[in-house]
Amino acid sequence: MNRVNKEAARQYREAREGLSAAKIQALDLKEAREQELDSLTRAIHHEWFPEESDHMMDSISDARDRKRGINPMSAEYTESVNTRREARGVEPLGENGLPTTKKSWDLAAAEAKRRLTGL
């Protein structure tokens, strides 16, 4: 078991220490719902805004360019992405090709909540 798993297990134990079986069950249900919401939010965000993950596949020179404020993506791709983002009500990518706000995550979270609650 690595350090992260040990810490998660410790937090799990401490959160349930001294609770009744019913309260533990309620806490487990709440945490499961939060985890489901988080997972769905991530999936929606990746589906709607895949360009925000593009930097993960940067070469060393692309990463250096981004640090200098230079967007390594083509102008045509950046333009099409920014058009799609503006249609969704999200600010365009910054000069370096990275998002400038967390609004895309807020939209993905709102959609995930809508899908889970059925509203």
Mean pLDDT: 92
The biggest beta sheet reads: none
- Which structural class do the helices and strands define? mainly alpha
Overall shape: elongated
Helix content: 55-70%
- Total strands: the figure is 0
Helix count, DSSP H or I runs of 4 or more residues: 5
Please trace the helix and strand order, writing H or E for each element: HHHHH
Strand content: under 5%
C-alpha termini separation: 40 Å
* Whole-angstrom Rg: 20 Å
Low-confidence stretches: none
Question: Could you walk me through the main structural features you see in this protein, from its secondary elements to its overall organization?
Answer:
The protein is mostly helical and 119 residues long. Helix content is 66%, strand content 0%. The longest helix is centred in the first third of the chain and has 28 residues.
Characterize this entry briefly.
Helix content is 66%, strand content 0%.
